[in-house]
């Protein structure tokens, strides 16, 4: 039987915690940061839990 491959794009963007939650990065923290307020960029640091509506699809992609 062939092995089940995980989606390489999804595996770069999401990670699964020990308890099974899926974490994602926040948007707007990639480029053009010079004109964005520091207050905003600090708020966008760190991972957040994925929305419940998307978890089923992402879990399937991660394998």
UniProtKB/TrEMBL annotation:
Domain of life (superkingdom): Bacteria
- Family designation: Belongs to the bacterial ribosomal protein bL35 family.
> PROSITE patterns, per this entry?
RIBOSOMAL_L35 (PS00936)
- What SUPFAM superfamilies does the record point to? L35p-like
Keywords for this entry? Ribonucleoprotein, Ribosomal protein
Family annotation (InterPro entries): Ribosomal_bL35 (IPR001706), Ribosomal_bL35-like (IPR021137), Ribosomal_bL35_CS (IPR018265), Ribosomal_bL35_sf (IPR037229)
Q: Which PANTHER family match?
A: 54S RIBOSOMAL PROTEIN BL35M (PTHR33343), LARGE RIBOSOMAL SUBUNIT PROTEIN BL35M (PTHR33343:SF1)
Q: Which organism is it from?
A: Nocardiopsis sediminis
Q: Does the keyword Hydrolase apply?
A: no
Q: Which Gene3D superfamilies match?
A: 4.10.410.60
Listed under GO cellular component are: ribosome
Keyword Ribonucleoprotein in record: yes
**A Pfam family assignment:** Ribosomal_L35p
Which lineage do the record's taxonomy fields give for this organism?
Bacteria, Bacillati, Actinomycetota, Actinomycetes, Streptosporangiales
Q: What is this protein called?
A: Large ribosomal subunit protein bL35
